[in-house]
Specification:
The complex is a heterodimer of chains A (829) and B (410). Chain A has five domains: 96 residues, no CATH class; 250 residues, no CATH class; 207 residues, P-loop containing nucleotide triphosphate hydrolases (Rossmann fold); 81 residues, Elongation Factor Tu (Ef-tu), domain 3 (Beta Barrel), CATH 2.40.30.10; 93 residues, Elongation Factor Tu (Ef-tu), domain 3. In chain A, 40% of the residues lie in helices and 19% in strands. Chain A has a six-stranded mixed sheet, sandwiched between helices. In chain A, strands 7-8-14-11-10-15 form a six-stranded antiparallel barrel. In chain A, a hairpin with a 2-residue loop joins strand 21 and strand 22. Chain B is an alpha+beta fold and 410 residues long. Chain B has three domains: 136 residues, Pelota, domain A (SH3 type barrels), CATH 2.30.30.870; 134 residues, 2-Layer Sandwich (Nucleotidyltransferase, domain 5), CATH 3.30.420; 113 residues, 60s Ribosomal Protein L30, Chain: A (2-Layer Sandwich). In chain B, the strands form four sheets. Chain B has a five-stranded antiparallel sheet. Chain B has a five-stranded mixed sheet with strand order 11-10-9-12-13. In chain B, strands 14-17-15-16 form a four-stranded mixed sheet, with helices on both faces. In chain B, helix 11 links the parallel strand 15 and strand 16. In chain B, helix 2 packs antiparallel against helix 3 and helix 9 runs parallel beside helix 12. Classes of the chains: A alpha+beta (829), B alpha+beta (410). At the A-B interface, helix 25, strand 7 and strand 18 of A face helix 4, helix 9, helix 12 and helix 13 of B. Chain A: It is found in: Cytoplasm. Chain A: It catalyses: GTP + H2O = GDP + phosphate + H(+). Chain A: InterPro entries: EFTu-like_2, G_TR_CS, HBS1-like_N, P-loop_NTPase, T_Tr_GTP-bd_dom, TRAFAC_GTPase_members, Transl_B-barrel_sf, Transl_elong_EF1A/Init_IF2_C. Chain A: It holds the Pfam family GTP_EFTU.
Chain lengths: 829, 410
């Protein structure tokens, strides 16, 4: 009990407490469980812990004690026991009595201890248990201190379990030497799931438990798992089960233990396979009897002695074990054997409805040691029973994991995980169109950033006389960006709606930072084009980066664009202005190559937040009743991902973190990867291993195309990693080329000339070396060989030579720029 | 480069040529090595100081080897020029025997500053070679400047002289991207600036020997990198009280470029700040010429052509003549070429000059020359438009492909 509480954070036990209290109060206090305050709950816990002694102390005393100990039930109980209950000698006696349910443990323990302490005796029950149970015994001592309220299930299952042993030859042990399992006190309902409401152990029990714990010290953490399994198995047991079935189940359980031992030896997560087992058991056994919900009467029945079943001849195994003496079983049928390992099962019935803090810690540890708890990955998915079961099923293959990789079938994992959609979008537009401010406002309104942060930024912004930049500063975090009031590099941020996790890529609008914008656009599924509706600003934007950005996002493969007509509040939400802009922008977007069905317009005000998350409040804007920006975002279907292709991930960042000095982040362009995978970093050609990873800032075991992952790498020096490098599958490495052929759409005159080559984060110098052909725009056939110049808006095949080798492959989108202008964009051939 | 009187002409003339074909030059500046590289062509006879390891076998069979200072004369087979170190290595078989080396033995002459060498062109000096020599003998303009073309995480430190652009050092530094609440970026930027500054001070000599002021520094970048770098230099100068650095930082010019790659130097050299300073220099005019050419090419008026074949055709037709005809040839075409090819290009240059056109040999070591290199090293602006110059080119290309195909079949 006490350990149990130590291990559990208040948060994770809360539910259990509520649950326990339900039962408890229904019977004894008849309080409604849901509305309990912490005190009330604590009192209940204490009372439960005190058991019958609860009457010896007043509620007020408990409350005071609780308050003093800050709701630490254990300490409170201890205090109450020593202060009010224990001091008088007769009361001390009562304390032992009070701990009657554990009293049964004593007997259990002693029964288990007996064979050891009495060598030479052809020992009783313990020895005669089937061998798997021997291993089970190891766990009992740990579980007893942790999960003290063992009795109910014991009581419930005892008769059925004992039936098994009716078949066993008990040897020629004198009956007085046979272990007598004392029938436990009839449990109160509240103890059924009552990890939180378990009675306090006596010193003796604690001592015994501690000793036992030492024995089984190697698997302290996993004992819970074991218990969990057993618990689930017991849940499914019904009193009326046929012995045969029960045998199966017990074997199952023991099998689970065996498996668990194996797993714990490899430090892999043992929980899932066990859960799997328990699930199988559940399926196997149609009984839905939840022991928690079981009426006391049923339990009463279970404790009633069962008529002696017919005895089967001893099994071959038993005969081997016990020899000839075993052929005549002793008349033990009337004895009630509460199996020791059963004792602690019920206490854990609820312990694993949620991952315990131990699990969390274990997960973290396992991650650090390159072995991830599968539970963690399932955690982030919807933790319905089904989902868990799914995961468990998928994990079944991985019972014997490799030292590093879990060898998951990532794609099927991905299909199974019914996680939210992920989508990333890039925010583009002319400089000062209000991109960053709008995104800052969006994050504020969605609660990703709190008002306090913004207020703080506003204060800082006011200091340098730029208070209107406060919202933009949410994303513009560089000192330079703040000082100059201009976004320089891509800022990424995340927010979630009910259906989708979005990654924002806030691109710089200034023409000097278009390389960064290209880097952002290369990671995006769709785009928000922000247009300044202000008088003159729209027109200058259209000539400036509004056009270039649209061209770029189109050539980077972004098909869907949401046009946010910003700053409409400055023109009094004029519908005419909006329509005019809509008209013009539609025109030139379709000319750029966007389909009009993929273009939508939203009138917004980034500064005030109108039509971003909420509708515009200004009555002048009431003419617009269409979807808000967030609505539009949600309706945007993310593009299909190249999941089955070999892994390609472009590094957008290299940094140091605690888990690994070589941490990279980036978007997975194609394929999938998982923890333990070997990776190849190009162009350096160095191999690395995935130590652990984060997907959308959550620990994960795997990641697929389209996701933004942070990889903690091992076995690689940071000098081999640079922004723009490609991480790929070593079996299907990406080639490093210093010359490539490009089928490009020209935006400007092209001739053999030096160009800047952009691909994602890569920004390299190159030269158009030759122009083999001009191609027909529609058919792609050659219309002119070796032209000396390529005119704008025509498609040509270009041979580009690079100054250095770069990881490039066919199908990649490349942008060529020259003299600060985008001159061509196209696909690698 | 200094021209001196040649001694021992008679022996040299045994290899051909006349008195006039022999020059003795003394390179005085690193730049002169580059000129020498342009002057020395294959099959020339070069006499220069040499250090050779000579192994002698004594009567008893033991060997001694010595490093001997001697003067050797070789027939040039190949040259190698290291632009950063400005070192020129010329190799070929020895043609004049002496006590250490017999004829036919190969030697690589390392031309050294302030040690004269004698060059004989047995076939005579052509017009291009003469022009190169004239250029080499012209006194240094001293207008070279140091330039740092940078962007975040990348800096190209180069020295722009009248005849060439030398990339002294390329600095790459991985700067962390921006992350919430991280100071890594600022630190990373600082570290980058520091690296660039230290490299710059090591790679570029800001106090030329003649001592007429310090060498000008040009900082170019997109965005604010150059400005910030200049600020950083000033801060560092103040912190360390380094007067020299302070002067450099104070006089540094900050110009805009579209990227940090070296070919952005092109834009920089066009910027008014640089133009005003270097307008009379060779590369100033070269850059302008190339820009004009590209402008014409964009207009597609049939007057701008590039590539050897169309240009050769145009020149042969006399289309590159007086009245705006310009022929641009990269000096790389004249270097290390076999004599016949060189003659062909020299012939083109002579023809254009004879027709009254402007024939320019561009330095391939400048950005403009690099651009011309991309066009095949030769381009021309015609006096009158011709539109079908590349038609036959296509056919030839087809023929080439056919040949290739055959080659592959075999």
């Amino acid at each position: 009990m006490s350990r149990h509480q130590e291990f559990r954070s208040v948060q994770s036990t809360l539910d259990e407490h509520y649950y326990d209290d339900d039962d408890y109060e229904e019977e004894e206090e008849e309080l409604s469980a849901e509305d309990q305050a912490a005190m009330r709950q604590g009192v209940a816990d204490v009372k439960a812990a005190l058991g019958v002694e609860a009457s010896k102390v007043t509620t007020k005393q408990i409350e005071e004690a609780l308050y003093y100990y800050y709701y630490d039930v254990e300490k409170t109980v201890h205090y109450l026991l020593t202060k009010f209950i224990a001091p008088a000698p007769p009361k001390a006696a009562k304390t032992t009595q009070k701990a009657k349910p554990p009293g049964k443990h004593i007997s259990c323990l002693s029964s288990r201890g007996a064979p050891r302490h009495l060598p030479g005796t052809s020992s009783a029950a313990t020895v005669m248990m089937p061998s798997p149970h021997e291993s089970l015994r190891l766990y009992s001592p740990i579980a007893i201190p942790q999960f003290g309220t063992a009795t109910p299930a014991t009581a419930m299952t005892r008769s059925s379990i004992s039936a098994i042993f009716d078949h066993m030859p008990w040897g020629n042990v004198p009956s007085h030497r046979l272990t007598v399992f004392v029938e436990p006190e009839r449990p109160r309902g509240g103890l059924m799931g009552g990890s939180g409401a378990a009675p306090k152990l006596t010193r003796m029990q604690q001592l015994a438990a501690a000793r036992k714990k030492k024995v089984a010290d190697k698997k302290p953490s996993s004992s819970e798992d074991a218990v969990d399994t057993t618990r689930q198995g017991i849940q499914t047991l019904s009193v009326e089960d046929q012995p045969k079935e029960k045998e199966n189940q017990i074997l199952n359980v023991s099998g689970g233990f065996g498996k668990r031992q194996k797993l714990s030896a490899t430090q892999a997560a043992g929980r899932m396979p066990l859960a799997e087992l328990s699930r199988e058991e559940r399926q196997q056994d149609g009984s839905s009897s939840q022991h928690d919900a079981m009426p006391p009467s049923a339990e009463q029945d279970s404790t009633a002695p069962e008529p002696a079943p017919e005895l089967a001849p001893p099994s071959a195994f038993a005969q081997t074990l016990f020899g000839v003496g075993a052929h005549e079983p002793a008349p033990v049928t009337t004895r009630q054997f509460a199996l020791p390992y059963m004792a602690y099962c019920p206490s854990l019935t609820d312990a694993f409805s949620k991952p315990s803090p131990d699990d969390v810690v274990l997960t973290a540890q396992a991650k650090a040691g390159k072995k991830t708890d599968a539970a963690a990955s399932s955690k982030k998915k919807n933790v319905g029973v089904d989902a868990v079961a799914h995961d468990v099923k998928a994990l079944k293959v991985d019972d014997a994991p490799l030292p590093k990789s879990k060898n998951l079938n990532v794609l099927s994992e991905y299909e199974k995980s019914k996680s939210k959609k992920t989508a990333s979008f890039v925010v583009v537009g002319h400089v000062d169109a209000g991109k960053s401010t709008m995104m800052g406002r969006l994050l504020l309104d969605l609660g990703v950033v709190d008002q306090r942060t913004v207020d703080k930024l506003r204060k800082e912004a006011e200091k340098i006389g730029k208070s209107s930049f406060a919202l933009a500063w949410v994303l513009d975090q560089r000192t330079e960006e703040r000082a100059r009031g201009v976004t320089i590099d891509i800022a990424t941020n995340r927010f979630e709606t009910d259906s989708t996790i979005f990654t924002i890529l806030d691109a710089p609008g200034h023409r000097d930072f278009i390389p960064n914008m290209i880097a952002g656009a290369s990671q995006a599924d769709f785009a928000i084009l922000v247009i300044d509706a202000g008088v003159g600003a729209f027109e200058s934007g259209l000539k400036g980066q509004t056009r270039e950005h649209s061209l770029l996002i189109r050539s980077m493969g972004v098909a869907r664009v949401i046009v946010a007509v910003n700053k409409l509040d400055t023109v009094d939400w004029s519908k005419e202005r909006f329509d005019e802009i809509t008209h013009q922008v539609t025109g030139f977007l379709t000319a750029t190559g966007f389909q009009s069905k993929n273009v939508s317009f939203v009138p917004v005000s980034g500064l005030t937040g109108d039509n971003l998350v909420r509708r515009a409040t200004d009555p002048a804007a009431s003419w617009y009743q269409g979807p808000t920006l967030v609505d539009e975002l949600e309706s945007s279907e993310p593009t299909t991902r190249a999941l089955n292709k070999p892994l390609r991930m472009s590094i957008s960042e290299v940094f140091k973190t605690m888990p690994s000095p070589t941490t990279v982040s980036g978007r997975i362009d194609a394929g999938s990867l998982q923890v333990g995978d070997a990776l190849l970093v190009q162009p350096s050609g160095e191999k690395a291993y995935v130590k652990s990873m984060l997907v959308d800032e959550e620990p994960a075991d795997w990641a697929v195309a389209g996701q933004n992952a942070i990889l903690h790498l091992s076995n690689i020096d940071p000098i081999h990693l640079r922004v723009g490098d490609i991480i790929c599958d070593p079996t299907h490495p990406i080639q490093c080329l210093d010359s490539f052929t490009l089928k490009a759409l020209a935006f400007d005159f092209l001739m053999p000339m030096p160009v800047d080559v952009h691909r994602g984060r890569i920004h390299a110098a190159g030269t158009i070396e030759a122009i083999p052909a001009i191609l027909d725009k529609v058919t792609g056939s050659v219309t002119k060989k070796k032209p000396k110049i390529v005119k704008p808006a025509s498609v040509a095949r270009l041979v580009v030579k690079l100054s250095t080798k770069l990881p490039l492959e066919a199908g990649q989108r490349v942008v060529l720029r020259s003299g600060g202008e985008t001159v061509a964009a196209g696909l690698l051939e | 480069m200094k021209l001196s009187r040649t001694k021992g002409v008679a022996e040299l003339l045994a290899h051909g040529g006349t008195d006039e074909d022999v020059v003795t030059l003394t390179p005085e500046e690193p730049e002169d090595m580059w000129h020498a590289n342009n002057l020395i062509a294959v099959d020339d006879i070069l006499r220069a100081h040499a250090i050779r390891k000579v192994t002698r076998t004594t009567n008893t069979g033991s060997t001694t080897s010595d490093r001997v200072h001697t003067t050797l004369t070789i027939r040039v087979e190949s040259t190698f020029f290291d632009p950063v170190a400005s070192a020129l290595h010329v190799s070929g078989p020895v043609v004049e025997e002496n006590e250490n080396v017999s004829t036919g033995q190969y030697h690589t002459l390392d031309l050294e500053l302030n040690r004269q060498f004698t060059l004989l062109k047995p076939g005579g000096w052509d017009s291009v070679a003469k022009e190169t020599l004239a250029e080499a003998l012209r006194p240094e303009s001293g207008d070279d400047l140091a330039a740092v073309v940078m962007q975040e995480g990348l800096a190209n430190i180069c020295v722009v002289t009248e005849f060439r652009t030398v990339l002294k050092q390329r600095v790459e530094h991985s700067i962390p991207k921006k992350r919430a609440g991280s100071s890594a970026l600022d630190n990373g930027t600082k570290a980058f600036y520091e690296k660039v500054m230290n490299t710059l001070l090591r790679a570029v000599d800001f106090e030329p020997k003649d001592g007429n002021g310090s060498r000008a520094l040009l900082l170019a970048s997109p965005g604010f990198v150059a400005t910030e770098f200049r600020k950083y230099m000033q801060e560092q100068a103040q912190r360390t009280n380094d007067k020299k650095l302070m002067a450099i930082a104070r006089d540094a010019m900050v110009v805009h470029s579209s990227s940090g790659h070296i070919h952005a130097l092109n834009e920089i050299l066009k910027s008014p700040e640089v133009q005003s300073r270097m307008k009379d220099t060779k590369y100033g005019s070269e850059t302008k010429m190339m820009d004009d050419f590209f402008k014409r090419l964009r207009n597609d008026d049939g007057r701008a052509w590039y590539g050897v074949k169309p240009v050769e055709k145009a020149v042969n037709e006399g289309a590159v003549g007086s009245g705006g005809g310009v022929l641009m040839v990269n000096n790389s075409l004249f270097r290390n070429m076999d004599v016949a090819t060189r003659k062909r290009y020299v012939g083109l240059v002579d023809k254009v000059k004879a027709a009254g056109g402007d024939a320019r040999v561009l330095s391939s070591d400048h950005e403009s020359g690099q651009r011309l290199d991309a066009l095949g090293g030769i381009a021309a602006v015609l006096t009158y438009p011709i539109f079908d110059l590349d038609e036959s080119d296509d056919e030839e290309a087809g023929g080439d492909e056919g040949q290739n195909g055959e080659g592959m079949a075999i």
